[in-house]
């Protein structure tokens, strides 16, 4: 199994001679919690000497179709309903554009995903890893989240990945050739293995020197941990 590409993105802001903290960020594009968490973390960490190593993952077919399936859990209808309300509250509170899927849309898409050659979220995750090193991977990452949660599109579709690539200034044909490469699949497999090894309870999960922070409501705690470490490393 290939090693995860260790080329983290620097957070926006000036990076000087201070110690830099690496934050591993596990996400999945078709999760509103991951979308909100990524936006909030990017805002909160702006200007700090941190490097964010984004590790988008997928959900292999043999492990189910939902994130809860991936981590060996189960989400009830009441929990699903609550999570929708909660995401809308967070989006409104923080001024983040968010359009949730209509009733039944997820189930319709899940039925299609089962027929695809790739697992759920595998194509966009592969495409992200193929974009690493281009200097445009962060813009591509944002474009995929925007496609899912602003435009309401299915990021598992080839056309959606292509449009996100174009929006980020990448050549869609070149990117998809890289996404389909065997080496890119090994990188994705390694990211999922790392997600399991780090015992992540869901997405988004950030890992800082072995300490885990799960959920959009833990961004403040993440930032506090980073600041504490920066002082210790100074």
Keywords:
234 residues; alpha+beta; Glutaredoxin; five-stranded mixed beta sheet; 10 helices; globular
Descriptive overview:
With 234 residues, this protein is α+β, with helices and mostly antiparallel strands. The protein has one domain: Glutaredoxin. The protein contains 10 helices and 5 strands, in the order ββαβααααααααββα. A 5-stranded mixed beta sheet has the order 1-3-2-4-5. Helix 5 packs across helix 9. The longest helix is centred in the middle third of the chain and has 18 residues. The radius of gyration is 17 Å and the shape is globular. The chain starts with 8 loop residues before the first strand and ends with a helix. The N terminus is likely disordered.
Text of the CATH class: Alpha Beta
**CATH arch. level architecture:** 3-Layer(aba) Sandwich
Assembly status:
single chain
Work out the radius of gyration: 17 Å
Low-confidence parts, pLDDT < 50 over ≥5 residues?
1-7, 12-17
């Amino acid at each position: 199994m290939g090693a995860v590409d260790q080329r983290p993105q620097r957070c926006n802001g000036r990076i000087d001679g201070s110690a830099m903290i690496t934050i591993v960020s596990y996400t999945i594009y078709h999760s509103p919690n991951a979308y909100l968490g990524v936006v909030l973390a990017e805002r909160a960490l702006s200007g700090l000497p941190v490097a964010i190593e984004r590790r988008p993952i997928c959900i292999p077919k043999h492990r189910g179709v939902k994130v809860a399936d991936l981590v060996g859990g189960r989400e009830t209808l009441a929990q699903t309903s609550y999570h929708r309300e909660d995401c809308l509250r967070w989006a409104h509170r923080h001024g983040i554009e968010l359009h949730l899927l209509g009733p039944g849309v997820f189930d319709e898409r899940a039925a299609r995903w089962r027929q695809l050659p790739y697992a759920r979220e595998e194509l966009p995750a592969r495409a992200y890893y193929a974009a690493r090193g281009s200097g445009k991977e962060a813009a591509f990452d944002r474009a995929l989240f925007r496609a899912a949660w602003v435009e309401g599109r299915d990021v598992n579709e080839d056309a959606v990945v292509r449009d996100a690539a174009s929006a980020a200034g990448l050549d869609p044909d070149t990117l998809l050739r890289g996404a389909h490469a065997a080496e890119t699949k090994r990188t994705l497999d390694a990211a999922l293995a790392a997600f399991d090894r780090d015992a992540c309870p869901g997405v988004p999960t950030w890992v800082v020197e072995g300490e885990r922070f799960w959920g959009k409501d833990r961004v403040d705690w993440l930032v506090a941990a980073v600041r504490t470490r920066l002082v210790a490393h100074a």
